[in-house]
Amino acid sequence: MTPSPEAPARLPRAVLRHGGARCAALCAVSTAATAAGLLLPAALGRTLDLLLAHAPATRWVACCAGLVLLIAVLDGCAGVLTGTVDARSTAWLRRRVTGQVLALGPRAGARFGAGDLVARLVGNAAQAGTAPAAVAALVAALAGPVGGVVALGLIDPWLVAVFLAGAPVLALLLRAFARDTSACVADYQRVQGRLAAALTEAVGGFRTIRAAGAEDRETARILAPLPELSRAGHRMWRVQGRAAAQAVTVAPLLNLGVVAVAGLLLARHRLSVGEVLAASRYAVLATGVGVLVGQLAALSRARAATARLAEVLAEPAPGYGTRGLPSGSGQLELRGVTAGRGGRTVLDGVDLFVPGGTTLAVVGRFGTGKSLLAELAGRLADPDAGEVLLDGIPLRDLGHADLRGAVSYAFERPALLGTTVEDAIAFGLTTPSPDRIRSAARTAHADGFVRRLPDGYATRCADAPRSGGESQRLGLARAFAHGGRLLILDDALSSLDTVTEHRIAQSLLAPGAGPTRLLIAHRTATAARADAVAWLDGGRIRAVGPHAELWRDAEYRAVFGA
After folding, report:
1. In this predicted structure, what is the pLDDT of residue 3?
2. Average pLDDT in the 46-70 region?
3. SS3 breakdown of the chain: % helix, strand, coil, rounded to 5?
4. What span, in angstroms and rounded, lies between the C-alpha atoms of 233 and 536?
5. How far apart are CA 106 and CA 87, in angstroms?
6. Are 77 and 71 in contact, with CB atoms under 8 Å apart?
7. At a CB cut-off of 8 Å and minimum separation 6, what does 149 contact?
8. Predicted local confidence at residue 249, as pLDDT
9. Helix, strand, or coil here: 537?
10. Which end of the chain is more exposed for a tag (fewer CB within 10 A), N or C?
11. pTM (2 decimals)?
């Protein structure tokens, strides 16, 4: 396994780096808008003094109008850049996480659950994608109070002294808000993930739920976390409301103090009326806690969402070697393979040898690890101990293209990916050809029913009604079209009718040159046609031999319910 390049601590920085020039431009535009906003009170104050003195003020009035127009233009540009940065960052995060989920394979679903992964990819990625824009907005928001304090100092040192006397209180309020809101947001997003996981399970099993008449019970199960979600949401609003209320209490007192001192200085003729106006505006900017609270809340949500994505990216994904496969017939070997699921050892020290070009059926009771063995044989999963070899080369040492080109799979419930039926059969092929696809469909006895579809092979998968057996035949056709030297069928014949299974088995298991075939079998007919049978029992290989010989054992017959 190789660790993901984005560890939890590095992902936020990676998101910011991806924003790159656009994020820098957004920061510059937002800061420029803040700077223009800082110049406006001084310009207004100067204009007021000139008007009170009946002096020409046309240039200063034009300057004020220009600043207002500039602020409006800069705010519009910032809005466009914010949307662009958010969209690009979200898309980048979704690509990274999707790639990681696909690289992890079955481990991703086992570790996080399908529904929770969907919640992270959809909701959390969108929230995490706002982080670069939130950082830029926070920088601009900080520039306002800092600039306001500096401006107060330039007008008169006493004004900034009065403000700084109460500034530590504001700083403590912001720090407490940032800490409390991060914890609340993390709880809220975690409960959202649980809701999504339960909903995904129900959608996948909706027919079973309706057949059992359990709609109300399942609805209650799915919505069970709602009270917890409500509590987490209320905590978020209470934290934000408390921070806003405290800010509303402290900020006006500071503003009042600055204005009072400015009034005293005006009475002593140390300040003009225009400077008092400017000081009152700068005091408002300097105490802009409300803006900071909003930006900190947005950044806290983005950080909490980023942490949930980083959990997925931190899972070690399988690494691939650089070796290629030598010429060979697909000899498969498992040496001391141990593997588990959910903290339980399923396969324990399994040794197995499958000569190239032969067919081995793997049988056993439910839960003995047959499907796990099939995953390990083609490296959809890695063993906890031991190694799997193909033509003498450990699977871990093979390059990705060599491994995937050598192994093809068909499953009990195949996922038919692609727009059309032809796309579904050709899925994974670099250069699919119509002849190859139709030949594979004929071998899988799928060509006949495909041609009866409204548009034949061009029929959209969503518009192609099919039984479980027909779906399995399309999955078999995809495996046959893929080719390779090792063909793994994970109970891929179970939904076929007896006649179709017999016909496919005749062509699939015919003696002669062909790929090595590993079959996960539940039917005696399938096991009987194989060259040999591996009997899994208690996580170990109990026996390997022809089906006819093993059939003499009553416990072997019991595996098939006989």
Report:
1. 44
2. 91
3. 65, 10, 25
4. 50
5. 29
6. no
7. 160, 163, 164, 167, 282, 286
8. 64
9. strand
10. C
11. 0.72
Strands 344-354 and 332-341, by their bridges, are antiparallel
Kindly report the three-state secondary structure assignment for every residue of 136-196. Answer: HHHHHHHHHHHHHHHHHHHHCHHHHHHHHHHHHHHHHHHHHHHHHHHHHHHHHHHHHHHHH
Distances, alpha carbon 188 to alpha carbons 22, 51, 243, in Å: 30, 55, 19
Nearest to 525 by CA among 345, 363, 389, 337: 363
pLDDT digits (tens, 9 = 90+) for 278-333: 888 888 777 766 566 667 777 878 888 888 888 888 888 888 899 999 998 899 99
User: 299 with 142: CB under 8 angstroms?
Assistant: no
- Contact between 484 and 406 (Cβ < 8 Å): yes
Q: Are strands 332-341 and 385-390 parallel, antiparallel or unpaired?
A: antiparallel
Q: What are phi and psi of 353, to 5 degrees?
A: -130, 125
What is the residue-wise DSSP string for 543-558? EEE-HHHHTTSHHHHH
Contact 17, 96 (CB under 8 A): no
Place of tokens 């009072």: 260
Cα(279)–Cα(271) distance, rounded to whole angstroms?
10
Could you tell me the pLDDT band of residue 211, with boundaries at 50, 70 and 90?
low
Confidence of residue 1 (pLDDT cuts 50, 70, 90): very low
Q: What is the pLDDT of residues 482-509, one digit of tens each?
A: 888 999 998 887 777 778 877 887 777 6
- Pair of tokens at residue 214: 């359990």
User: In which residue are the tokens 């650089």 written?
Assistant: 322
